[in-house]
Write a structure and sequence with these properties.
Order of helices and strands: HHHHHHHH
Structural class: mainly alpha
CATH topology: Vanadium-containing Chloroperoxidase, domain 1
Radius of gyration: 17 Å
Largest sheet: none
Strand content: under 5%
Number of strands: 0
CATH class: Mainly Alpha
CATH superfamily: Phosphatidic acid phosphatase type 2/haloperoxidase
Distance between the termini: 43 Å
Shape: globular
Number of helices: 8
């Protein structure tokens, strides 16, 4: 089933503009733009604590995935196994499971607790399958792991700032 879903989504990479978008999302420019937009939003709304939470969630998720899970699991990327995939962003090196893009963005979405963040995380995660560099299950694993990390960070920060830990709704304006 993983391969069937991969092939359907990877077929989208042949549509106009999709390959370019996958390359952008995969590259440093896309990451820097996303981080820049999140920081600009935090600055405009004067939500410095939110910027710290976003940075912490993304960094922790990335380190946990790249340094812990990927070396242990060692799953090969689909682009190294299936010769006929469309690869608009190249294949990439390293292991596939779980997706670090998915983990980091779902951790950020969980910390922010806002619908647009969940939509963005989902779109970026799916672009990794469209680009042929991740299996759908890599994305699911990264999304679940990232969500767990984000919720844990949000809980710990809220607990530390209020003396109680809850996950009810997005962090408030005054929370760190």
């Amino acid at each position: 089933m993983d391969e069937a879903i991969l092939r359907v989504l990877n077929g989208l990479a042949t549509l106009p503009g999709v390959g370019v978008t996958c390359r952008f999302v995969d590259g440093r420019a896309g990451t820097l733009l996303l981080v820049g937009l999140l920081l600009l939003r935090a600055w405009r709304l004067r939500r410095w604590g939110e910027a710290v939470r976003v940075g912490l969630a993304g960094a922790v998720a990335d380190v946990v995935v790249v340094r812990v899970f990927k070396p242990i699991v060692g799953r090969i990327r689909p682009c190294h196994q299936l010769a006929d995939l469309v690869l608009p962003a190249g294949c990439g090196s390293g292991e596939a499971f779980p997706s670090a893009h998915a983990a980091a963005l779902f951790a950020v979405a969980a910390v922010l607790g806002r619908p647009w963040a969940w939509v963005l995380a989902t779109l970026v995660a799916l672009s990794r399958v469209v680009a042929g560099v991740h299996w759908p299950s890599d994305i699911l694993g990264g999304a679940l792991l990232g969500t767990g990390i984000g919720l844990a960070i949000r809980y710990l920060i809220q607990r530390g700032s209020t003396g109680r830990g809850t996950l009810s709704g997005p962090p408030t304006q005054g929370s760190p």
